[in-house]
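User: I'm putting together notes for a lab meeting next week and I want to include a structural view of one of the chains we've been expressing. I don't have a solved structure, so I'd like a prediction I can at least talk through. The sequence is below, exactly as it appears in our construct file.
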Amino acid sequence: MLALLVSGCTVGPNYQRPSAPVPPAYKENGGTTSTVPPPPGDWKQAQPADDAIRGKWWEIYGDPQLNALEDKIAVSNQTLKAAAEQYLSAREQVRVSRASYYPTLSVTPQSARDRVSQNRPLYVPGTQTAYTDTVIAGQASWEPDLWGSIRRNVEASRSNAQSSAADLANVELSIRAELASDYFELRGLDTDQQLLNDTVKAFQASYQLTMDRFKGGIATDSDVALAQTQLQSTTAQSIDIGVARAQYEHAIATLIGEPASSFSLAPLPLNLALPQLPTGVPSALLERRPDISSAERRTQAANAQIGIAIAAFYPNITLTGGGGFESTGAGNLFQGPSALWSIGGSAAELLFDAGRRRALTEEARHNYEAQAANYRESVLNGFQEVEDSLAALRIYQQEAVSQTAAVNAARRSTQISTNRYKGGTTNYLEVLTAQTAQLSNERTAADLTTRQFASSVQLIRALGGGWDTSQLPKLK
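Assistant: Thanks for the context. Below is the predicted structure for the 476-residue chain, given as C-alpha cells.
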C-alpha cells in the first residue's frame, strides 16, 4: 500500500513539442529557394565555429561608446527590472507547487482554566466544577499524488517559470536592440548634420562668389537671390535635424535608466564598417529566439493542465494522523497515561457534477491547441523577421552601389557647372540644380548607411542575439 501511494501514476498526455514548419535554408541568404544569391560582405552562412552570434553581440560593431551604453542596460533599465521580478515570482511558484508533494504538519499547544456551572443538566453534586486542561498535540495530513495531479501542477509551474525566463531574455534582447538602433540612428543624423554643415560652408562660398560677380556686373540679381535662397534653405535643414537627434538622445537616456535632462551624447558621425553577421541554419532559430522558446514553454504548461483536469475524475485520498499529551496538571503532562493519538484516512469520489469535469478537461485541451497554434505562429513570425532583415540588407547593399555612383556623378556635375558659371558660359540656375542634386544624393547615401546598420541590428534581434535555450533555468 505504501509503495502504491509513493509511486502512483500520472494521467494525461505526455508532452511532445508541436511540429512547426522549418525551411531547409533562408531564402534571402542564398538558400535553395533563391534564384539570385546575395552579394558578399554583409552576412554569411555560419561556419562550424560561429554558428551563432554570442554573448555581447553589440561588440561586433567595434564602437566603444555603444558598448558603454549597452553595459548600463542591465543595471538601470526599469522595464528589464520589472521583467526580472516577474520571472522571480514565477520561479517561486514552482516551490509552491512542489510543496504539495509533502505532508503538512502542525502543532497546537493550549492551556485553559475552566469552571462549569453547578446548575447544568445532569450535574452530580460534589463533583469538581473548576479544572485545568493543558494539551500539547500535533497533526499531520498528506494527500498522496496517486494520479499525478501534483506532478502535472509542478510541470506546469516549471514550464511557466521557464517561459517567464524566456520572456525576460526577450525583453532584454528587445531593449538592447532598440538601444543599438537608436544609437545608429543618432549617429546617422550626426553624419547628416556634418554633411549639411559642410554644404552650408560651400553654399556660403557660392553665395559670396555670386555677390562678387553681381558687384562686378557679371551676375544678375536673380543669381544672388537663388544663391541666398539655397543657402538659407540648407541652413534651415541643418537646424531641423536637431529635433530628431534630441528625440533619439532622450530615448537612449530612458533606455539606460537616466533622466533625459541630464544625459547627452557628443556628435559623432557614423563611419563604422558594417560587420559580417552569421545567420546559421533555420532549424537553429527555434533554439535561439527567446520568444519562440517562451511560446513553446507555455505550450507544455497547457499540456500539463490537461493532466490536472483528468486527475479530477479520480478519488481524492487523504491520510491524517495526530498525537500529543493532555493533562489537568503540568506535573504529569508527559507521562504515559496523558498520551493521545489518532490515525486514519479518507477517500472522496465525486459521483455527479453535471459534466463540469469533462468540460474542464475539454477546455484544457482547447487551451493546449491554442498555445500550440501560437507557438507555430511565433515560429513563422521568426522566419519572416529574419527574411525581412536579410532582404533589407541585400537590397540596401545593391542600392548602395548605385547610390555611390550617383553621388560621384552629382559631384562631377557640380564641379562642371561651377566651372562653367565661373567662365560665364551658364547662369547660376544650372549650378543650383547641380548642387541640389549633389546634396540630395549625399544625404540619401548617408541615410542608406544608417538603414543598413539598423537592419543589421534587426537581423541580430531576429536571430535571437546571443541567447539560446541552454540558458533556460532547469528549476529542479
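A couple of points you could mention at the meeting. The two ends are 28 Å apart (CA to CA). The beta strands are 43-44, 104-107, 110-115, 130-142, 277-278, 316-327, 339-348.

User: Perfect, that's what I needed.
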